[in-house]
Structures are given as C-alpha cells and as structure tokens.
Design brief:
This protein is of the alpha/beta class. Helix content is 30%, strand content 21%. The strands form 5 sheets. A 6-stranded mixed β-sheet has the order 1-2-5-3-6-16, covered by helices on one side. It has a 4-stranded antiparallel β-sheet with strand order 10-12-8-13. Strands 14-7-15 form a 3-stranded mixed β-sheet, with no helix packed on it. Helix 1 packs antiparallel against helix 4 and helix 4 crosses helix 9. The two termini are 27 Å apart.
C-alpha cells in the first residue's frame, strides 16, 4: 500500500480521535470510532471492553508474535491551552506555533490537540504500518493492540487482556520517543505515609504528641536515604516527597499527618523490596497504592537489541512509565512525537513525525524478520 495514502488517512483519523474526549475510563466513544475505521478498511479485530486487538487473517497461535501496542485514553487538558484542545481552529493553531521551531512544512501539517502526541500519533502510525505490511509474509505474527486505561494504570486495559488474550513474544510499546527506542524505563511506586500522634491543645503540647513532627522526621530520613544498588542504565532509584497534610486549627496539635512519596524504581529493586526497606526506617505507616508498576528493561540478548544495532538506532532509558509495566515479554518503547509535550498545554504532533513513525515501524518489523531468518 502507498505510504502517503496511508499517512493521509492516518492524519484524518487522528484529528477525528482528538475531537472525541477520551479521558481514562471514558474511552468507549473513541474506541468505537477506531473500530469503525478498522471496519471501513476490512481489518479483522477483537474488542475487549474498550481495547482493540487487530490480527492478520493468517494469525497462528503456535507462532511467535510481535505486538505493537499504544493507548487511546488521555489525561485531562492542562491549563492554559491556546486553542480548543478537542477541536482547535486553524487560525488558533497558526497563532500558537512558529514554523521555525516545529518540524512542519506548514501549519496545516500540525495536528494539534489533546492526545495528538500522547498517544494518538502512535495509534495511527502503528495501524498504518500494520496495513502497509498486510500483503507481505513474516516468520511471526503481527498484531496491533489499542489499549485503554493506560494513563491511570486501570484494570480494564492491558492488565485485562494480557496474557489471557494477548501473549506476545516481543512488543513495541508506542509512546512519543522521537522514534528512538527506549530499552529501559523506570517503574512507579507511590506510597501514602500516615504518622499517628496524640492530639491536644497547642497550649498544652506536652500532653500530646505532634504527628506533624513524626512525619517531618520520617521525611528527613527519606530525603537523606540512598538505595545501595545502582542500575547501569538508569542510575539510582529516584524518590521525592510530593505532598503533606496535617492540622485542623492553629491551636490544635495534630494527631495525624499524611504525606505522599513518589518513587521511580530501576530494575535493581522490586517494588515490595523498596517498600520493605523504607518502612524499616520510618515510624509512619507506609502503604503502597500499587505494587505492580515495576521497572522494565530489554535483555541485552534480545533479538530486539539486535534490530536496534542493525538499524543504527540511538537507544536511551526512559524516565516515564507506560503499558510496558503490564507486559511480561521482551519489549522496547518507541513512537513518533516528543514525550516533553505530553500532559502539557498545546499538545501537538506533525505529519513529518507521523511519516517517520510509520516508516520506522515498518523498517523495524522487516529487520526483525531478517534477523530471525538469518
């Protein structure tokens, strides 16, 4: 199939997706719209909740499988948009972007709006690459998964369908990386800390025990703490206290103080290990919101690493999480766009970036086939 025709259809689909509000847990309409597009192109797919699994007619469960996956949900619009985040007017887009600073030949080549970069650009590029290769044979299955609930680690997206409905050998996780493959990504561990004291009148502080002071002591320990094991690719585990809350009045010693700890793990620690180590040094009770968002890394022996080398791609370690944390197979994270635009005002992606995305996925798939054949 002609790449430019596929690209034109991809741009149209992406603009239509942007116009449909699809915050996490409200993806039904955008999922249905993508399904309608697949129907119009005669593509076979299975819908599970608000996720789609697209497979070739010759899909063989006994063969190895390469999965391309991206997500259709978005965060809520950031404050300060220069245009309507769902249906931006052409004049507003032209006013918002200086062509000398973006990779676009004209303002018409800028696809702006919420979800354009994260993660609609990956969705449409993966579908286009899949369509471009439909008439070619490969020594493995190719499937495209459009997942839901990614932005909030919901249980109804990739966590629902893997590994029961999709259990690939390899995966390319679509996230905006400028088509540079991330061969590792940090996990995410959020802890809720609660310090318990004894409340009393501030004039008689000696009768109580200030929970705020307990929390402050624990926070000081967390701030000074260094985890011993250091990742060769990601460096140290990152940890920050990001919220604290205590007190009801100026003259009341608080009996309870809560705080939040944001931790970005590496592959050197499991999330339960981190929780155990920190709890041992804190008086406050630490509770994990989720222990499943682990760190991920591509094994050096993986065929995916061989492809990266043959294609001369610049690999890096990603500081952000994705559906990779819910996929238990060899994977890399790669897609068109720029992660720095995600979750910010005036989100956008360009036609040139989508073109590189489509061609980049095609080149990667063909190279993997060559590596396997050799």
């Amino acid at each position: 199939m002609d790449i430019e025709n596929l690209l034109s259809e991809s741009v149209a689909l992406l603009r239509e997706m942007i116009a449909i509000p699809s915050p996490t847990f409200e993806e039904e309409k955008v999922c249905s719209h993508i399904a309608g597009f697949l129907d119009s192109k005669g593509l076979q797919y299975e819908r599970i909740a608000n996720s789609l699994i697209i497979r070739r007619p010759d899909h063989d469960p006994e063969r190895q499988t390469l999965m391309l996956c991206a997500h259709c949900d978005t965060v809520s619009p950031a404050d300060g948009y220069s245009f309507d985040p769902y249906q931006p007017a052409a004049a507003d887009v032209a006013a918002a972007f200086d062509l000398s600073t973006v990779d676009a030949d004209s303002h018409d080549d800028i696809i702006a709006g919420l979800g354009s970069n994260d993660d609609g650009g990956c969705v449409v590029s993966m579908i286009a690459a899949y369509r471009a290769l439909l008439d070619e044979s490969f020594p493995f299955n190719i499937e495209v998964v459009i997942s839901s609930e990614e932005e909030r680690s919901g249980n109804g997206g990739m966590a629902l369908i893997h590994p029961k409905n999709v259990n690939p050998t390899w995966a390319i996780v679509g996230e905006p990386t400028g088509m540079k493959p991330a061969t590792s990504e940090r996990g995410l561990l959020v802890l809720d800390g609660v310090a318990e004291g004894v409340t009393c009148h501030a004039a008689r502080a000696e009768e109580g025990r200030n929970a705020l002071y307990i929390a402050m002591d624990d926070i000081a320990k967390l701030r000074a703490h260094k985890f011993e094991r250091v990742s060769p690719t990601m460096g140290e585990v990152k940890m920050n206290v990001t919220q604290i809350n205590a007190g009801s009045a100026h003259n009341v010693i608080p009996g309870t103080c809560s705080f939040v700890v944001d931790i970005r793990p590496t592959e050197q620690y499991s999330n339960p290990e981190l929780l155990e180590e920190l709890q041992a040094m804190c008086e406050s009770k630490l509770t994990a919101r989720n222990l499943k968002n682990r760190s991920s890394a591509t094994p050096k022996s993986s065929l995916l690493m061989a492809v990266i080398g043959l294609l001369g791609l610049e690999q890096f370690s990603s500081p952000t999480t994705s559906d990779w944390v819910r996929i238990y197979c060899e994977a890399v994270k790669m897609g068109p766009g720029d992660s720095r635009r995600s979750h910010h005002k005036d989100e956008f992606i360009t036609v040139n970036e989508l073109r590189r995305g489509v061609n980049g996925y095609i080149d990667f798939i063909k190279c993997l086939a060559e590596v396997i054949s050799d």
